[in-house]
Design goal:
The protein is mainly α. Among the domains are: 62 residues, no CATH class; 66 residues. Helices cover 78% and strands 2% of the residues. The protein is built from 13 helices and five strands. The chain has a five-stranded mixed beta sheet with strand order 1-2-3-4-5. The two termini are 72 Å apart. It comes from Diaphorina citri. GO terms for molecular function: ATP binding. One of its GO terms (biological process) is mitotic chromosome condensation. Keywords: ATP-binding, Coiled coil, Nucleotide-binding, Nucleus.
Length: 509
């Protein structure tokens, strides 16, 4: 049964551990996904704010340019023309190869110069501000982006800036490596100004370049959405903190359960080793139990005898009370006689009075010793009765547990210990009874010694009788009565069955 219990406990513990780990993992994955999504939204909002700030700066620059900063624009155009001329000079280095195409090139140059002059004159006439002219093959990515909301265009410009778009990789390499600008091809190949090329490959990864950007045109709704997202993010962070604390508690519980499982496995191994040996010892224990039951049956006291003994105890107590009353009367008589002697002898018997007082004190001490011994005897009787009752109750419980002895080996050991304790108590009580008997013997010796001293005092009284002839007769009667009392007290013996003084028999004599 214990083996099955430990096995079930181990299985339940493992199942609980697996379920708790699985739920914790699912909750962790869900929170990580929500955290990533919120972080992405937060980064997008932050980036959008940066783009808006840069857009405002660009708008300020455009306003400053439109107010009259045309000279700077003209100087930029002149620099551009000089750069174009330098490029043309570079192209004209290879004169032999270009002589055949020289007329066509010169015509193209004239056309380009005319177009450039026209482009420079048109903004001046209209007053639009500055314009930057570039090759058709070096078209900016910003010019290819189309948005629904024009407020997003500054953000797009901050993102792309001077990035150019080339139709092929060869053209992108040519423009990028010659002019050290950032170029992207239509296939996704990117050439950085430093000359590093990235992107491309067999599989094309589509980004957001070809998608239409959709934004909310209402600023209030955007702010409300941001507030909602922030509130949701705060709630999720609180939930994440709570789950982390729960995770710590669960991990602690799991570690404790692991330790418990290992300990239970060790206990299971120990029990699996101990069970066969205990099963082998079971028949011997059952036989021992039967022997103990037989011994208990023999040790059980007869209720009738106990009742009879209790009645005898009550009778003896009543007799003892009567004897105590008679002893009190005798003491009163002795006191009266002593007073008469003292009244007659006046101051002549001071020594006798002193010796009599000492003898009286010793007699009182002996009486108190006898009373203590009686109390000890009564207590021993009560202990004997309780031990017998306990033995009977243990016998009844052993008979009830005899039916289920194969399932209650531990209870058998417990009751065996209780039986041993009761036997030890029984031995202790017997030892106490023996001690009381020895104490009674010592008290008897003390009484004998007191009687000897009393005899000496009586001899001294006889010596004084010559001077107290008038009270000799009364003194002799008093001494005779005292001798009778002492003789009766010497005849007191302890009854081994009732543990009381059979005073009735003494006074009957």
């Amino acid at each position: 049964m214990n083996k099955h219990y430990y096995y079930c406990n181990c299985v339940l513990t493992n199942q609980f551990h697996v379920i708790a780990t699985k739920e914790l993992k699912e909750e962790k994955d869900r929170l990580q996904k929500e955290q990533i999504e919120l972080r992405r939204r937060f980064d997008d909002e932050k980036e959008l704010g940066g783009y808006e700030a840069k857009a405002k700066e660009e708008e300020g620059r455009l306003e400053a340019i439109s107010l009259g900063n045309l000279e700077k624009t003209v100087s930029e155009l002149k620099l551009l023309v000089t750069q174009q001329r330098k490029d043309l000079e570079k192209l004209s280095i290879d004169i032999p190869s270009l002589e055949m195409n020289l007329p066509a090139l010169q015509k193209q140059i004239r056309d380009l110069e005319a177009e450039l002059k026209q482009c420079v004159c048109d903004p001046k006439q209209v007053g639009l501000g500055s314009m930057k002219i570039d090759y058709v093959e070096r078209m900016k990515m910003f010019d290819l982006i189309r948005v629904e909301d024009e407020r997003i265009r500054p953000a797009m410009y901050c993102a792309t800036q001077t990035t150019l778009v080339a139709p092929t990789l060869a053209q992108a390499m040519k423009v990028g490596y010659e002019h050290h600008v950032r170029v992207v091809s239509l296939q996704g190949d990117i050439i950085e100004p430093s000359g590093i090329m990235s992107g491309g490959g067999r599989t094309r990864i589509t980004g957001k370049m070809g998608r239409s950007v959709r934004v909310a045109t209402d600023p209030e709704s955007t702010v409300q959405n941001l507030k909602k997202i922030n509130r949701k993010m705060d709630n999720l962070e609180k939930e994440l903190a709570n789950i982390r604390s729960q995770k710590g508690n669960l991990e602690k519980t799991v570690s404790e359960l692991k330790l418990l499982v290992t300990q239970q496995r060790k206990d299971l191994e120990k029990l699996s080793i101990d069970i066969p040996s205990l099963e082998m010892n079971l028949p011997a224990l059952q036989k021992q139990i039967r022997d103990l039951e037989a011994e208990l049956k023999q040790c059980v006291c007869d209720p009738k005898q106990v009742k009879k003994m209790s009645d005898d105890v009550k009778k003896k107590k009543s007799v003892m009370d009567k004897c105590e009353e008679q002893a009190k009367k005798l003491e009163e008589k002795v006191a009266k006689v002593h007073e008469e002697i003292m009244g007659i002898s006046a101051g002549k018997t001071s020594a006798i009075k002193k010796s009599l007082g000492e003898a009286q004190r010793k007699l009182n001490k002996a009486k108190s010793t006898l009373n203590n011994l009686r109390v000890e005897i009564k207590r021993s009787e009560r202990d004997v009765v309780t031990c017998t009752q306990r033995a009977t109750s243990l016998h009844e419980e052993m008979t009830k547990l005899g039916k289920t002895v194969h399932d209650n080996n531990e209870f058998i050991e417990i009751y065996r210990g209780q039986i041993d304790e009761s036997e030890a108590e029984w031995k202790v009580k017997n030892a106490e009874l023996k001690e009381t008997k020895t104490a009674h013997g010592r008290s008897a010796k003390e009484l004998a010694r007191l009687s000897a001293s009393r005899d000496k005092e009586e001899e001294s009284l006889e010596r004084l009788e010559r001077e107290l002839r008038t009270v000799r007769h009364k003194a002799e009667e008093h001494a005779g009565e005292m001798r009778q009392v002492e003789a009766r007290m010497r005849q007191i013996r302890l009854n081994p069955l009732t543990r009381l003084y059979d005073l009735e028999e003494v006074f009957a004599r």
